[in-house]
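Hey, I was hoping to borrow your eyes for a little while. I'm sending you its amino acid sequence along with the backbone structure tokens. Take your time with it, there's no hurry, and the full record follows here.
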Amino acid sequence: MSSSWRRYNPYLRYPALSLGLTLLVLAPVASQWLRFQVSSEAGVLLEGDQRNQASYERVQSILGDEVVIAVNLRCAEVFSPSGIDAVRRVSEAFETQPGLLDVKSLTHSVRPVRRGLSLEMVPMVSANPDPAELERLRRFALENPLVRNVMVSPDTRQTILLNTYDRDLSSPERQAAFAAEIEAILDPFRAEGLEFDLLGFPLIEQELRETLRGDVGRFVPAAAGVLLIILGVTFRSLGITAMVLLNQLAVMALLPGMIRLLGYELHVFSIMLFPLLAGIHLALLVHLFGAWQNARGLGLGADETMEATLREVLKPSAFAALTTAIGLGSLTFSEVAPVREFGRLGAAGIALVFFMSFGPGLALLGLISRRWPGWLGRRGSSRARGAWGGQVEAWVRRHRRGVIGAAAGLGLVSAAGLTRIQTDVRAVDFLNPRSPTRQAVERVNASYGGVNVVQIEVDSGRTNGVNRAEFLRYLDELQAYAAAQPEVTAVYSYAQLLAMLNQIWEGDRVDSFRLPTNPILLRTFTLALQTYPLPFLATLMDGASRTAYLIVRSQDMPADRYLELLARILAQANSTRPPEVSISAAQGIHSVLEADRRILRSQIRSAGSTLLLMGVVLALLWRSARLAALSLLINVLPVAAVLALAAVAGITLNSVTIMVAAICLGIAVDDSVHFITHWREERLRGMDARQALRRTLDAKARPILCSSLVLIGVFLIFSLSSFPPVVDFGWLAAGSFGGALITVLVGLPALLSSAGFDAWP
């Protein structure tokens, strides 16, 4: 095969010319680094969070090009003269900001009041409120069901200001300037002792961008240090280390251009491709240059060394790259959009890695080995064969039953642990606990009644049916039942809106917040809403006035508790509904179920398809289904064990960690491909089982050890990330590769020396 490869590979026949042409062709692709940017669009995070993605998309459709920033002001007491004064002054300070359309706050909002036989909008609070007015405002904010937990927290120490802007914030520079303006406005108030939380998509994106920049600043020096140490110990040659790093830099330089050519952009998910592909690439180069050192150490000439190198590593490397591409490509079966994109880009990246290694990489190696061989180290200075293969083989034979028994026991324990896997797909958990955005979301969730919202559709059965008295009474009773549930913090309905109008009509009497009993008055209110619709009316019923929406709000809770709460409300709704009324919460329940279940489905599909396709490929490579099954078993065990350990430790699967199984299986199997391929070739040469194992361990143990250390080191660097799921992904992957190293160098020889394979082929 290697002679044919040399004959048809222009990088080996015409290395200098091929390198020059490659440089000319790929230079425009590499130049994409000049326009290299990482998208920090907040919506990408929500693509993995089915619970909140629909809400995000609905908000975006309502806002259009407008931008809304929520400012949570924290002080000693909102309903005090100093508190109201602070709200007013902060609101007025924002009014000076360019592009501001509106500020909604306690001091900059209006409410309807009765004036004779009509309703009039008046300021919510006067310019100089007395204690009695502040007390009335406090009661209104805390007791009105449509206002409670919306503008003011129940402890009256926090209040929300909503700023709406008409401003172009599409570029990072504009977002950075916008964030700086807001900070400049708030700094004087912070000096007074006021505290603020800020929530808004441009601010989130700006924070993500700065966080990614900080992560890169930590990743690059850490990765450089780890790789230089491992490569130096592995090759003990400055020249080979430099060539490996040069090949690596070339691939990294081409990645942004490849991503652009495929029609994608980098974001907080796909940026992980860089360290991932770097680790895979380095593992491949360790095998390639390790084999070249072994061949050169035997005293062969430049051409013979290249011939021996290709004979040893080309075929297993090609199949290893294919299995890795299968592992990444299987992610395209995921139901999570960023994961599908990651899989496509990862598979394309593997093709780029293989091309650069066995194309330009071989050409450069051939040129230097012929013209400046001394730069690659002294001939014969590398240890072509280890001296400890026989010792490992003898130890494995003595303890074979114990090794196989331990593996079987680990498999049983792992199977039990896998049943405890849990999912958690909340986008906020993607952020570091110290993140200002995450802290703001968690504070709002805890202080304002929660961020979980589900919509229950109540279909009246006819156009304008929601305005019938019988339907409204039913909706009002259902709303009261839902509000009485201990987990529920707020319920919003069309019936409540009419009750609020009735209270206003009756002079804000405490007991008047109820549906009007007078049908003429009820008809008057419904006609008024049709004539002068309130801004949030569309969230409470559809345009044809046929279906009303019951909005149930609660604090964050596990999916099983959330579904049980919804089941109680739906059971009550169906048991008391009029005959023509129908109830549906399919969209709400579906989003909750899908948030967790599609994560597990994605894991099962990607891992299952990876195993199936890799099994077929390996069976074709070795012409043996048994060897293919053995290789998969050896690599499934450590991945399953690590996932089971994660489940026991409480690490949940999310839109990042769901990729662990498929990716680790695809990468970890590479070492067993090299090991079994070499063992099989030794057996085909006539070696007995013990000799084949010894020679395989002598030739492959060191590159397998080094490539595994490279992968472990690269993925441990993920622990430096500011994003918790990325940290978990790094630890899980590093643990999987550490376990795979043990199973390949200990478990695989134990099984290959068993009776079933001892007489093979």
Remarks:
- The radius of gyration is 33 Å.
